[in-house]
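Attaching the record inline, Q. Sequence:
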Amino acid sequence: MFICVLEDYFLSVIQEFKAVGKEVVISKKEKRTFSRVVYDVKFQTEKSIKIKIEVDVDPPMKFDTEQKLLLLPYSFMTRCFVLSDLYAGKIHALIFRKWRQRVKGRDWYDFEWYVRKGVKINFNHLQERISQFDGIEMSRELFIEKLKERLADTDIDSARQDVLPFIKNPEELEIWSNDYFLQLAEMIKFQN
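Structure, as predicted:
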């Protein structure tokens, strides 16, 4: 199982942090939704840093991956989702996430980023996610309708407040409004 393989690397991660003078604590917690396991990697700099690693133990299929070269902390290759499939995951969260009282402004920020960059969404992977997690089939037209409902009904001020601590230039959020996001929805591009 992938999780066991991932946990095999934790000792090496701890040793690498120790080599640069940082104590790291890795803890595991089971998440009840979407069959995920979550690991928290915590260490101290001038601020306390926590990195959350979510492992989906039953991921939706119909996705593509690619090899990417990373140069830091040393050169290595890694396999990752292509942008069109990451976009599908983000848009699924934006539409179907159960917010309760808290809007995830980061979902909105990421949605804006994907549209601005002209990334085409992999609708086949999005439909696979919707089918697996929500038990429904959805056409592109129904997807756009559901997205627009979510965009029209969201408290944009709450979304803005959630993302504000992560933004260097708060003025870039001044354009945010329900109408702004509805117009972004009109600019979504799909893979063929």
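The helical segments are 2-7, 10-19, 83-96, 105-116, 123-134, 140-153, 156-163, 178-186. The two ends are 34 Å apart (CA to CA).

More tomorrow.
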